[in-house]
Write a structure and sequence with these properties.
233 residues, alpha+beta, 5-stranded mixed sheet
């Protein structure tokens, strides 16, 4: 890099930092600024654009598995690590708020949290959020990881765990890695079985969320076409 190029890139990065502080930084520019800390002496704009094009958006870049990031030309362990660190820090912030306040009763917060937990995962994962009487998070559990279109669920284990930590209610979360669809009827049946097990111990099921491959979060409670007469009473 010539001296003039170096001065240009340093100036560009300073402008990005100032735009961030002024609240005027676009999403793709935020990714670009993040990459500058992993690659201090190279123009990272082309790489930022490549990542967004490859994964379909900034959010999906952050959620992408470490191994998938490494397959992108120009991405080494340092870049992949800082991207995953940023994503993990966002999960920590969600969990801390969920533990300390009644955020899990807020629809936007819980949808964003679900998306942060499982969006972009290469296989189906089933997560359980265990709540206390004030809708605060007691524990987040990865109940199971499966294949690209299935993850086994054990309703009695969900109920047993809830009982063992004195949970008052439960939120279920899973993803559809290769489908933009909402809930299947198998999902509805599994939800009903879990709800029945929880009811035996006086524990309520708040909702079941699925995160589709396009990042859309669906609520089973709000899904009109399913027969939900046996649960969410």
């Amino acid at each position: 890099m010539s001296k003039s190029d170096e001065l240009f890139h340093n100036g560009h990065r300073d402008r990005l930092k100032q735009k961030l502080l002024n609240g005027k930084l676009a999403g793709y520019e935020k990714l670009e600024l993040l990459l500058t800390y992993a690659i201090p002496r190279r123009d990272v704009r082309p790489l930022a654009r490549t990542l967004i094009q490859r994964f379909g958006g900034v959010y999906f870049v952050l959620c992408a598995p470490y191994e998938e990031l490494l397959r992108v030309p120009g991405v080494g362990p340092g870049v992949a690590t800082i991207i995953k660190l940023f994503h993990q820090l966002s999960l920590v912030s969600y969990q801390e708020r969920a533990e300390k306040g009644q955020y899990l009763s807020d629809d936007k917060f819980i949808r964003d949290y679900c998306r942060a937990l499982v969006a972009g995962k290469p296989v189906e994962e089933f997560h359980v959020l265990y709540l206390d009487g004030n809708s605060r998070l007691i524990m987040h559990e990865v109940h199971n990881r499966g294949t690209f279109n299935q993850a086994d669920v054990y309703p009695r284990e969900v109920a047993r765990q809830a009982l063992s930590i004195n949970a008052v209610s439960v939120i279920l979360v899973h993803n559809h890695p290769v489908s933009d669809n909402s809930f299947s009827y198998d999902d509805a049946e599994t939800t009903s079985l879990i709800e029945n097990c929880l009811n035996m111990f006086g524990i309520s099921l708040v909702d079941h969320f699925v995160v589709a491959s396009n990042g859309v979060v669906h609520s089973m409670r709000a899904t009109p076409f399913l027969n939900k007469s046996s649960f969410f009473k």
